Amino acid sequence: METPKVSVVMPTYNHEKFVGEAIESVLNQTCTDFEFIIINDGSTDGTDSVIRAYDDTRIRYLNQDNQGAHNTINKGISIAKGDYISIINSDDLYHPDRLSFLVEKAQSQNAVFAFTDLIFINESGKQIKDEDWLMNLKSKYSECCSLEETFLSGNFAVTSSNFFFLSRILKEIGSFRPYRYVHDYDFAVRALLKYPENFLYISDKKFLSYRRHGTNTIGESFTEVHIEILKLLLQITPEFMQNKNDKVRVESALNCIERINESLFPELRQRDIRILNFLYTMHWKIKVLVRGLYEEYLQRKG
């Protein structure tokens, strides 16, 4: 196969119920210039049999012992040959025009990373309403028109299935890091901070169906998810604050941290009081860090 325009990478684990529909949503793309890398991360159900039923020369199928989502995605992107990489989890669905649209949009607007709006679907594939946290992020973006500030408030791209990026950026920002729940959020933020002028959100196209069901990894533990979010924010806040040239944007970063406090801690009081002190400490560290950077900014401004 000649070098494809797009490498589609699908990690899968115990999704025999959904993986066939996900595969078909890729194979039925109006864009045909792609390779399709499917990596089975040690599934113990019938996922393997479902995948092997598809006979298409664009599919490259690998089996491995269970290594987790970030390792599985990294394996796929390490063997990808395309100019662009597009990820889809094996319980989600692409709109038929997703790849052709994103290739054209990325090329015409010189984007290195792009994502679209999406719809939520349930286990049966029926559309359900957007979740409140995403509606809040959309409202935030409408107010500030800043992807940086919106991502500091939460994962605006929602899922790695919404990622479409130039393969060459992996040399600049690295691969997916070993977070269990926020490896996608971490990757998107690093790409945004590296390429703020070439990071594209397409708000008027819902070209991805994101499936919510009882076995979504993100639903395993509210507490553990938010621990990872806070750790991530502590790691990326200094880079986010670098070279901010006006007081409004610096204060916006502080406001984002406050909103995390407002939304997170009331929930934790109801769910898991045991680790509340740890999270308060983590949150305090982030605020101290941001305020310290703010003071440095004021000193630079004289």
Sheet with the most strands, sense and barrel status? 9 strands, mixed
**How helix-rich are the residues, as a percent range?**
40-55%
Low-confidence stretches: none
CATH superfamily of the largest domain: Spore Coat Polysaccharide Biosynthesis Protein SpsA, Chain A
> What fraction of residues sit in β-strands?
15-25%
At the fold tier of CATH, the topology name of the largest domain is Spore Coat Polysaccharide Biosynthesis Protein SpsA, Chain A
Task: Name the average pLDDT.
Answer: 86
List the helices and strands and how they pair.
Layout: E1 6-12, H1 19-27, E2 34-41, H2 47-52, E3 59-64, H3 69-78, E4 84-87, E5 93-94, H4 98-109, E6 113-121, E7 127-128, H5 132-144, H6 147-153, E8 164-166, H7 170-173, H8 183-194, E9 199-211, H9 222-241, H10 247-271, H11 276-301
Parallel strand pairs: 1-2, 1-4, 2-3, 6-9
Antiparallel strand pairs: 4-8, 5-9, 6-7, 6-8
Walk me through this protein's architecture.
With 302 residues, the protein is α/β, with parallel strands linked by helices. It contains eleven helices and nine strands. The model has no long low-confidence stretch (mean pLDDT 86). Strands 1, 2, 3, 4, 5, 6, 7, 8 and 9 form a nine-stranded mixed β-sheet that branches. It folds into two domains: 6-219, Spore Coat Polysaccharide Biosynthesis Protein SpsA, Chain A (Alpha-Beta Complex), CATH 3.90.550.10; 222-301. It has helices spanning 19-27, 47-52, 69-78, 98-109, 132-144, 147-153, 170-173, 183-194, 222-241, 247-271, 276-301, and strands spanning 6-12, 34-41, 59-64, 84-87, 93-94, 113-121, 127-128, 164-166, 199-211.
